[in-house]
Amino acid sequence: MKKNKWLFLLSMSLNIVALFFILTNQESRDSDSQIPRIEEKRSEMTYWLNRQELFESLPKDSHSIVFLGNSLTQNFELSEFFPGLRIKNRGINGDVSAAILGRINSVIELHPSKIFIEMGINDLGTGVSNDRILKN
């Protein structure tokens, strides 16, 4: 009986130590897996800021038509579809509705004749609630 008790205690102790190492190693792997996502977010933010900087450096003429949105707007070949019109493309790949709303004033300051807004698709993949998407 005494031998079984010691075997049981030894087994439990080894299981606790093994569980500790497994959990510690899992936390390490989880934090390591965050690094590429952090780098990806940093890259996206840098891209967004560079695009914003580009928009701010462009001439500020008024009475043009402005398309504001995300990648669907940015990648839309506006000049080919609307030749001869003064069109400004203010699309940014990956933009979410809150960010688009945050930069709408810079578009309004241009005094455009029309603004076309396309947004919301990127919100769907980021956990923004349907109510918030509709409010935005």
Task: Characterize the structure shown.
By secondary structure, this protein is mostly helical. The chain is built from 7 helices and 3 strands. It has helices at residues 2-57, 71-74, 78-81, 97-102, 104-108, 121-124, 130-135; strands at 65-69, 87-91, 114-118. It has a 3-stranded parallel sheet. The N and C termini lie far apart (70 Å). The relative contact order is 0.12. The model has no long low-confidence stretch (mean pLDDT 80).
Summarize the structure.
The chain is mainly alpha-helical and 136 residues long. Helices cover 62% and strands 11% of the residues.
Helix/strand layout:
Layout (H helix, E strand, L loop, with lengths): L1 H56 L7 E5 L1 H4 L3 H4 L5 E5 L5 H6 L1 H5 L5 E5 L2 H4 L5 H6 L1
Parallel strand pairs: 1-2, 1-3
